Request: fold
Amino acid sequence: MPDNLTPAQRSYCMSRIKGKDTGLEVQVRSELHKKGMRYRKHVKELPGKPDIVFCKARVVVFIDGDFWHGYRYPTWENKLSNFWKKKISKTRERDTRNATILRKMGWTVIRLWQHNIKSDFEGCIARIARTVTRKE
Reply:
């Protein structure tokens, strides 16, 4: 299926998509803060600029949208145009590369998917809290 927008229109649309401080990120950070957990956000010095960083515990959290980061991508990639296939494939490769580098640097990587946060918010918060507490 071809893209129905011109390259200039597509570029404009893509430039309007928020890359950080999304609703899910704010919701997760707010709950962590309520629990007394302190963190840094979007640390540029770390690969992939993790959404949430617990420096002392060396734990990073990525909050990924199901579409943008390709949750179960092989099951639906054939429904996309080449533009989206290329874009999502590159994102997945970059995510894998960054997580590998972070682990080699001694960081624990937690990846939370959009659907997991929406279906089990408390479980996701508990997972982060358990990991950070164990590492401190």
